Amino acid sequence: MSGPASQRGQRGAAAAGDVELSLYEVQRKIYPRAVTGLFAGWRWALVWFTQILFYGLPWLSWGDRPAVLFDLESRRFFLFSLVLYPQDFIYLTGLLVISALSLFLFTAVAGRLWCGFACPQTVYTEIFMWVERVIEGDRNARMKLDRSPMSANKLARKATKHLLWVLIALWTGITFVGYFTPIKELLGAILTLSTGPWQTFWVLFYGFATWGNAGFMREQVCKYMCPYARFQGVMFDHDTLTITYDARRGEPRGSRSKKADPAALGLGDCIDCTLCVQVCPTGIDIRNGLQYECIGCAACIDACDQVMDKMNYPRGLIRYTTENALAQDLPRKDMLKRVARPRVLIYTAVLLAATLALFAHLALRSPVKVDVIPDRALGREVEEGMIENTYRLQLMNSSEDSLRLVVGVDGIESIHVEGPAVFEVAPAAVRLVPITVRTLPGHGAGGSNPIRFRLQAEHDESISASARSTFFVPRR
After folding, report:
1. Alpha-carbon distance 290 to 112, whole Å?
2. Does residue 19 have a pLDDT over 60?
3. Residue closest to 265 by CA, chosen among 273, 274, 276, 254
4. 28 near 283, Cβ under 8 Å?
5. CA distance 280 to 282
6. CA dist 89 to 37, 85, 161, 193, Å?
């Protein structure tokens, strides 16, 4: 049989044998199990350290102002005794360069240490999971609760958990905004419901982001949203310390009694308890090799070491090691020697140089700055044929003391400041002053002439600054 009828029959037969495949896999919820141990202790130590720092800094005072405040309205940034202005953007650039170099160095040495121990996503997820365990129980209890039908007990537990999550998230949002608005003023405004629109927006936005990322998205942020997970591999090499399962020692895996001899059973040290999978916050099986989802938290190491202790096997079936050390059976001493390889030494040298340069520049910077704004009017001839230009000088005092600043100018013969030339600038303040500059007729070429304004403290010659400008002489 041929023709359209046969073609329809063939298509029908093909359709009957087709298997429908879904291109989208529903996200499986992960229930990480609680774990204790060396690395869990380090992780919680960093949780405490980072959060005491984050929540505490806005409350510290430095004189009559907050010790740390990014005052966007007045365009001043206070860092203890340091006062920075938008013109000091170079310091932010230097800080970003140092942060990037530090990330490269740590990653080259020991993989994703930042992700596993100090990243805000990891830190807040750890806090939110702790609240969840306190309210709903550990892994099995949470799974059982989620599978059970809605009841008064389930509703009460879920509501309590989310209430605590929201309170933590809101306080985090308030603290974040407290770096840009004095936090005592911010709390007063919140209590009286008089916060500004931007303050309200950022408190709610940052709080919502914290609640959503740490409470719901969790590992999805690390796996799908964070770019670091995607390009970390280019910073690894064969001597990078990573969390690794020793397959030669652990395979073939299988359950057995504590008294059994694994060699007699033809088994490795892995008893296939899957605890390493159960404690993983991203839900991977480290026994399948290094995966981009691994954030390097080392929870699987703590879990496996506890199992090895119970079985009276040596620790280290899952451990921090390198690809070369595992392949060549290198002792720990030789493995650590390879840490000081050219790549790491170069990163370290560049990082130290950038750090020293930044802090040296900060230490040597002058506490005063001057910006020159020429008047729109061109130079004009005044009495006795003198040529006059006017300017506005922005005098910036980044010190904590009031300063009397003397303004001078040079660059053309006989050029001088006409009128007041001494101005007092309050501590950590900016003052805009008008300046009139004159020169005798015949001095300076027609058109624009380069000049330089100089600023100096009246009683301290070491405090000075300068800025270039131009002086216009009318052409005849």
Report:
1. 12
2. no
3. 254
4. yes
5. 5
6. 43, 8, 42, 35
Query: Residue 391: what are its φ and ψ, rounded to 5°?
Result: -140, 165
pTM, full prediction: 0.81
Please, which pLDDT band fits residue 11 given cuts at 50, 70 and 90?
Answer: very low
> Reduced to 3 states, what is the DSSP secondary structure of residue 251?
coil
Average pLDDT rounded to a whole number, residues 347-374: 91
| One-letter identity of residue 257 | S
* pLDDT band at 25; cut points 50, 70, 90: low
In the chain, the domains with their CATH numbers are 24-365 (no CATH), 368-473 (2.60.40.10)
| pLDDT at residue number 82 | 85
Q: Could you tell me what percent of the chain has a pLDDT over 90? A: 63
Answer whether 413's CB lies under 8 Å from 438's CB: no
* For residue 467, pLDDT beyond 70: yes
For 123-126, which contacts have Cβ atoms below 8 Å and span 24 or more sequence positions? 123/46, 123/47, 123/50, 123/51, 124/172, 124/210, 124/213, 124/214, 125/213, 125/214, 125/218, 125/281, 126/43, 126/44, 126/47
Assigned token pair, 267: 């088994």
CA–CA gap between residue 431 and residue 425 (Å, rounded): 6
β-partners of residue 389 are: 437
Could you tell me the CA-to-CA distances from 282 to 27, 277, 293 in Å, in that order? 12, 9, 7
**CB–CB of 72/311 below 8 Å?**
no
Whole-number Å distance between alpha carbons of 174 and 179: 9
Closest CA to 164 of 127, 126, 219: 127
Rounded to the nearest integer, the mean pLDDT of the chain is 89
Give the integer Cα–Cα distance in Å for 300 and 277: 7
Strands 65-66 and 68-71, how do they pair? unpaired
Q: Which residues pair with 84 in a beta bridge?
A: 77
Q: How far apart are the first and last CA of the chain?
A: 104
* DSSP string of 289-353, one letter each residue: ---TT-----HHHHHHHHHHHHHTPPS-SEEEE-HHHHHHT--HHHHHHTTS-HHHHHHHHHHHH
